[in-house]
Amino acid sequence: MKHEYHFTISRTDRISLIAFVVFLLGWELIKHALPEVGSLDIQSGRPKSPDTHSIQDTTKSMVHTEKKFQAEIIEDEDSSITYADEKNEIVPVNIMEASWKDLRKIGFSAKAASNIEKYIAAGGVLKNEKDVLKIYGMDSLQWKAVSPYILFPARDKEADKSSEPTSLTPADAPVFDLNTASVTDLESLPGIGMVLAERIIKYRTSLGGFINAAQLKECYGLPPETFGKIQPRLTITQPATTISINEMDLTNFTHPYLNKKMIRLLQAYKKQHGPFTNATELGRVYPPDTTWCEKLLPYIVFK
Fold this sequence. Notes:
Elements: H1 11-33, H2 52-74, H3 84-87, E1 93-94, H4 100-105, H5 110-121, H6 129-133, H7 140-146, E2 150-151, H8 157-163, E3 176-177, H9 183-187, H10 194-207, H11 224-230, E4 234-235, E5 243-244, H12 260-273, H13 279-283, H14 291-296, E6 300-301
Parallel strand pairs: 1-2, 3-4, 5-6
């Protein structure tokens, strides 16, 4: 009868084998996690010294990274810091001729400097502080820091004079009374056609006459440049019609300077307090806004 033998491992051997495998894996992990420690010298059994070239390369890499980081801080477009040692070298610049770098050097933020450069390139002119503060990205605090180093271009007085509107009215051109001029008279003025002339007369009637020529600018459709051309040929000699505020019936009264709400307030005030005696009482009708009163007052008489 033959006996069969089977290879078996005892419990103690299995535990020892597992512990050995775990030890080997742990040692490999330690070597990968701590590469600077280096490997063991086979002959001496001691750890090898770290590679000098590796340390130098690592140091150079760190220095390069630090320098790059500092350069990025200096060139940061959102930074508007001016260092003390640089400030001593700042020279005032003509803002109309300065480059983006010049503007950054005297303390402008990158955004403001870029917008100033674009504005000037598009034909804009910066003549004073107000013009600069209108640039997007500017503020009073930034202007206070850079203003000592800003020069504005000298204004040409002759150019200023030439840019002023000159009167092209001939010396013998007729002058019209604005309160008596006819449609034909108004049509003879530069820039005034029949439609606009009729509109002026209609507005004059609703007012009761013009107090001054500047009221003509309130007429719908009259361009400011046209008013500038015809103003030298207008005068007022015929007085406007006045209104007796206490004697007239305000029920059906209309005036360009009074809306329906103001007319109702006038009626209510007069009914409650009696006749108006002066301009102060008239202004009490609607205290929050007395503009209407100031415009209407030349047409009002108190009796």
